[in-house]
Design a protein that fits this description.
Shape of chain B: globular
Number of domains of chain A: 2
Order of helices and strands of chain B: EEEHEEHEHHHEHEHEEHH
Distance between the termini of chain B: 40 Å
Number of domains of chain B: 1
Oligomer: heterodimer
Structural class of chain B: alpha/beta
Shape of chain A: elongated
Helix content of chain B: 25-40%
Chain lengths: 348, 251
């Protein structure tokens, strides 16, 4: 026990004394987050508009008219709640509701003036109506907790940083100890080398949880994003997910270093694994933006679910129970990585 | 009393036979040298004794404990200085010695060990800032944390300047005075002559000869051999030391 503790303390000291580790695990994600969160230059206005028919089958013609539009993609929803959730998440930029008294309601988020105008113009055009004439088109501002792109990017960057720190701290740090012969000297001591590896991993998981916490605090205080929506359980869930994700990506790092044919190819292999995930896992933009086929791939990747779990808790205050699917998939990936490590790991 | 016993030790790496049936014993308190050119099998032999690699055939014991079956007991008894010395770069010398003391469940005071190898002044420096000689001395300090009965030194003076080399010799002699058993590998003959009670000359994985340095020299001169070099009363190294002084340069 004392040996694990000594290694954990030693590994943590070395982490905080190395400038490059501070740079990559804290400075770099914080700067990326602040730059993207402030600029919001990936114009985060979803291209799709939801359509909810509340007026019975009589309006079928109108619906197919709407859907045939080439300028705006219309997605039909069977319940208004579902459409509003999509609007809250940012998948939709507006919802059009066809009501019984042949009234049409355009629902947009507060502050999305451009979206409101574009969609209302579209509806007028479809109805062959003059914009300023008396009409049955009503607008409606939805009351919801929508935090825009900065709300999206903060949990995304937190998840990205978990992956980067987890994988690269194994691939670079542990491999360099191995290459320098430090592990060999440890092997000559009357301990199992697993003491050292486990101590190192405990230190890194703690650092990863701390790093997530710091990134979220930066989001709260610098970008004014509301995290957790006042729910302590949501915060606990975020830290639990980063703990779980930390172990997962450390295990993936171990698997990469065991599977790499030689020491030089391990960092390349690590980049090959992390790079696609940066863009396909909903870190910088929602996976709904991707073509259908690619979004199937996205749904297989571990970072997608980690980012989604953290985002659900951060933006909507989801408790651990409400992110069960994400937690379960992370566990499944964890089991798979442990299995690969177990069959391929070599101390030498 | 025989401290180390090595019987018919063999080690193969795929097709390559690194060690091909080696036998020797080392008495308690003896300084035993393994001499040979690079690639002769010295390091492989020592690393088998240290429990770092397993022999393909044969066996070896230290203090009557088999180095493979009782490797944990053996590792607790011995102090090890490996050929390529490396420790954690961003830990201070004090922290490194303290960490290794924990690994050996030893309660030794790191400062007193650093004092012993003349590194007390550097206790708060990081390993990467040390000179070659200082790194070797730290490596020896780490080998001392468990107050071992047997010490292994693998080419401890390779790449050191004459001052640092003599300083290390003095250190090794002081361990001998304490009655520790020492196994030393080297390819410097004057080092073996200076330090070793007996030497084994190894080439291509086999021991060619074991005896004390002076017996080996006598045996050669009896055959009528005379060194080509005219022996003077001093060597160039003596000149160098007398001109530049014995004090260490790196501190």
């Amino acid at each position: 026990m004392k040996i694990y503790l000594s290694f954990t303390i030693a590994a943590s000291k070395m982490f905080f004394r190395r400038k490059s580790s501070i740079f990559w695990s804290l400075f770099f994600p914080v700067v990326t987050m602040l730059v993207l969160g402030n600029a919001g230059f990936i114009g985060y206005s979803a291209p799709d508009v939801g359509l909810y028919n509340n007026s019975g089958p009589g309006e079928a013609n109108k619906i197919s008219d709407f859907k045939s539009s080439k300028s705006i993609t219309i997605r039909e929803y069977l319940s208004l709640d579902e459409a509003l959730i999509a609007l809250e998440k940012g998948t939709l930029s507006a919802v059009i509701t066809l009501d019984t008294n042949s009234e049409i309601k355009v629902t947009t988020r507060e502050g999305d003036i451009a979206e409101k105008e574009v969609v209302e113009n579209f509806v007028f055009r479809m109805m062959n109506q003059e914009i300023n004439s008396v009409s049955n088109v009503k607008s409606d501002i939805a009351e919801m907790n929508y935090q825009g792109y900065k709300g999206f990017i903060v949990p995304g960057i937190a998840a990205m940083a978990i992956m980067q720190n987890g994988i690269f701290s194994v691939v670079f740090t542990l491999l360099s100890y191995k290459n320098q012969g430090v592990l060999k000297r440890l092997k000559a001591a009357p301990i199992s080398p697993s003491h050292f590896i486990v101590g190192h991993l405990i230190s890194r998981v703690s650092i990863i949880v701390l790093q997530t916490f710091i990134l979220l605090l930066m989001g709260v205080f610098v970008l004014n994003v509301s995290i957790g929506q006042g729910s302590i359980l949501a915060w606990i869930n975020i830290l639990f997910l980063s703990f779980l994700g930390g172990i997962l990506f450390l295990a993936i790092g171990l698997a990469i270093s065991s599977l790499a044919p030689n020491e030089d190819s391990a960092p390349a292999l690590a980049n090959l694994v992390t790079f696609p995930m940066l863009f396909l896992s909903g870190v910088f933009f929602p996976i709904d933006f991707l073509p259908k086929i690619i979004s199937y791939i996205s749904n297989l990747l571990p970072l997608t679910h980690l980012a989604q779990g953290i985002r659900l808790s951060a933006l909507y205050g989801n408790s651990p129970l409400m992110t069960m699917p994400q937690i379960a998939i992370t566990f499944a990936w964890l089991a798979l990585s442990f299995f690969i490590c177990a069959i391929s790991f070599k101390w030498e | 009393m025989e401290m180390i016993k090595v019987k018919n030790l063999k080690k193969n790496y795929d097709d390559f036979e690194a060690v091909r049936g080696i036998n020797f014993n080392v008495d308690e308190g003896e300084v035993f040298g393994l001499l040979g050119p690079n690639g002769a099998g010295k390091t492989t032999t020592v690393e088998i004794l240290e429990g770092l690699i397993e022999p393909t055939e044969g066996n070896a014991s230290i203090g009557d404990y088999d180095v493979v079956k009782n490797s944990k007991i053996v590792k607790k008894m011995i102090g090890v200085q490996l050929q390529s010395v490396n420790f954690f770069e961003k830990l201070s010398l004090y922290e490194i010695v303290e960490l290794f003391a924990t690994l050996y469940s030893s309660s030794t005071d790191p400062d007193s060990i650093l004092e012993r190898v003349d590194l007390k002044k550097k206790r708060d420096s990081y390993f990467k800032t040390l000179s070659g000689g200082q790194k070797q001395r730290l490596s020896i300090a780490v080998a001392l944390v468990n107050n071992p009965r047997v010490l292994f030194f693998d080419e401890p003076t390779t790449g050191l300047d004459p001052q640092a080399r003599r300083n290390l010799w003095d250190l090794i002699k002081s361990f001998q005075k304490e009655g520790k058993t020492i196994v030393l590998t080297t390819h410097y003959m004057e080092e073996a002559e200076e330090l070793c009670d007996r030497v084994a000359i190894i080439d291509e994985g086999k021991i060619i000869k074991i005896d004390s340095p002076s017996n080996l020299i006598d045996e050669l001169t009896k055959t009528g051999f005379k060194t080509q070099k005219k022996i003077k009363d001093a060597t160039l190294e003596d000149v160098f030391i007398s001109l530049t002084g014995k004090s260490l340069r790196e501190d």
